[in-house]
Amino acid sequence: xxxxxxxxxxxxxxxxxxxxxxxxxxxxxxxxxxxxxxxxxxxxxxxxxxxxxxxxxxxxxxxxxxxxxxxxxxxxxxxxxxxxxxxxxxxxxxxxxxxxxxxxxxxxxxxxxxxxxxxxxxxxxxxxxxxxxxxxxxxxxxxxxxxxxxxxxxxxxxxxxxxxxxxxxxxxxxxxxxxxxxxxxxxxxxxxxxxxxxxxxxxxxxxxxxxxxxxxxxxxxxxxxxxxxxxxxxxxxxxxxxxxxxxxxxxxxxxxxxxxxxxxxxxxxxxxxxxxxxxxxxxxxxxxxxxxxxxxxxxxxxxxxxxxxxxxxxxxxxxxxxxxxxxxxxxxxxxxxxxxxxxxxxxxxxxxxxxxxxxxxx
Length: 362
Known about the structure:
Radius of gyration: 20 Å
Number of helices: 10
Distance between the termini: 42 Å
Structural class: alpha/beta
Shape: globular
Number of strands: 10
Largest sheet: 6 strands, mixed
């Protein structure tokens, strides 16, 4: 056991020193740290102590690229996977993945079901806990690299977030959204908690923040199952997402003025995805309303057999023709397009700078 532990420590140190040399000599190595929910979860939830096997651990999830389920809620790669590729980084490991801590290029802390407000969901890793995990990663770097190199790595890194949708799904499900004053107060609470986390990331060394804003929450196949909607989206979740996005944009602008060295990028996920839902053929896709995998109206539920894996479901023959893979998550083909917009899109889509520009900031 002592020999194994010694080897693991030495190998971790070797990886970190190699990356440290790359940082010093070439000045190009930039890490990517990912926080968020199911849109960004690369498999953390499968390492939690859960009473059931996750749908994302069953076929057909992962079928397109990985040829096996990885814990990602898609047929293949997610937006952070493509962004890492564009930044010339490898796949970022889920934080909870056992084994050697290959964190020098970044880590994925995201967790399916996560919310900003920690009381909303169980059997998931809320944003505050993701932040606590990041603090442990910082301490790991401090111990292995020393403070100067650890701080240099964290200052140059990009911090990518996509979270908030589950907070608004929750109150919509509880029918608490009809009162405008309540909506404003609730959005303010979510944004306030999110701001607190961003400020802590800043104190810990983070300077470059990238956000994928809230999407058109009422337009997912799962939301459209409601027969009273017809072919329309559910308006309340969309309204909450729009309120959230306006408040998020204002908050990041204020932080950039108040915190020295703070840079940010916001990807307009809401309108970019909505445009593809309404006009799929314009973007080389065929189906924008129904999911590739699932059962019932719009195939909006039970992909991979639902919670217990026993419910029958349908599966399309070519996921790359669809916006949605399941009732709430996009296909690899869609994720690739979204990631490209986030990486190098114009300022009216991803601004005030895109991620390619954000990575270049010292």
